Amino acid sequence: MSDGLTKSARCYRHLFQPVIKQVVDFYQPTCIVLQCGADSLGCDRLGCFNLSIRGHGDCVQYVKSFNIPLLVLGGGGYTVRNVARCWTYETSLLVDETISEELPYSEYFEYFAPDFTLHPDVSTRIENQNTRQYLDQIRQTIFENLKMLNHAPSVQIHDVPSDLLSYDRTDEADPEDRGAEDSYTR
Predict the structure, then answer these.
(1) Per residue of the chain (186 residues), what is the pLDDT tens digit?
(2) Containing H/E element for 140?
(3) Quick check: helix, strand or coil at residue 104?
(4) Is 74 within 8 Å of 91 (Cβ atoms)?
(5) What is the domain partition of the chain in residue ranges?
(6) Cα–Cα distance measured from residue 6 to residue 55, given in angstroms and rounded to the nearest whole number
(7) What gap in Å lies between CA 40 and CA 112, rounded to an integer?
(8) Which of 84, 11, 7 is nearest to 42 (CA)?
(9) Region for 83 from its dihedrals, namely left if φ exceeds 0, alpha if ψ lies in -120 to 50, beta otherwise
(10) What are the distances in angstroms from CA 23 to CA 16, 120, 160?
(11) In this structure, are residues 132 and 98 in contact, taking their beta carbons and an 8 Å threshold?
């Protein structure tokens, strides 16, 4: 993806949803591990995307909608106050709880200035360089790559034959070690 990705309808409906659906349909997972790095949020110190907290949460909500057991992990995110907001919001979505837009007072309240809300304006600071054509090309490439796989990949478990475990390795003599019997005279 190019810099400046937003959670616009173009990006979400034309890329994220169809790709995730295709991947889930192809792999048919019995569980999903979803890594939610918050460095894709707008205004992140190191990230180069422009997702809002709601947009990030929409992605989590979509994956949750498959009703497949889900393990959600944190990840990157370098504007800590927005990472905390994002993960709080996503946790509320995952447990189906509505939470207040206003942040409760705590010893860390001042860190969330000046707005003290769950969904601050994370204004676009990087121009979105992801055209519809570019996103369509990414989607098509992913779909083509999935078609090249014959089946849902897996790692088969095989028994290790016992004779391999009891194999006695005998070291051969090092050809560089020359004993007295190998010496010769000129």
Answers:
(1) 555 465 654 566 678 899 999 999 999 999 999 999 888 887 777 777 778 899 889 999 999 999 999 999 988 888 899 999 999 999 999 999 999 999 999 999 999 999 999 999 876 666 776 778 888 898 899 999 988 886 655 666 666 666 655 555 555 666 666 665 555 554
(2) helix 132-147
(3) coil
(4) no
(5) 9-164
(6) 8
(7) 19
(8) 7
(9) alpha
(10) 11, 32, 32
(11) no
- pTM beyond 0.90: no
At the topology level, CATH places domain 9-164 in Arginase; Chain A (3.40.800)
Residue 99 has which token pair? Answer: 């939470």
Tokens of 171: 């070291």
Tokens (6 digits) for 76: 């990157």
Hey, what are 136's tokens? 């369509």
Question: Please, are residues 170 and 51 in contact by the beta-carbon 8 Å criterion?
Answer: no
Contact, 122 vs 54, CB < 8 A?
no
Map tokens 């919001």 to a residue. Answer: 89
Cβ 34 vs Cβ 65: under 8 Å: no
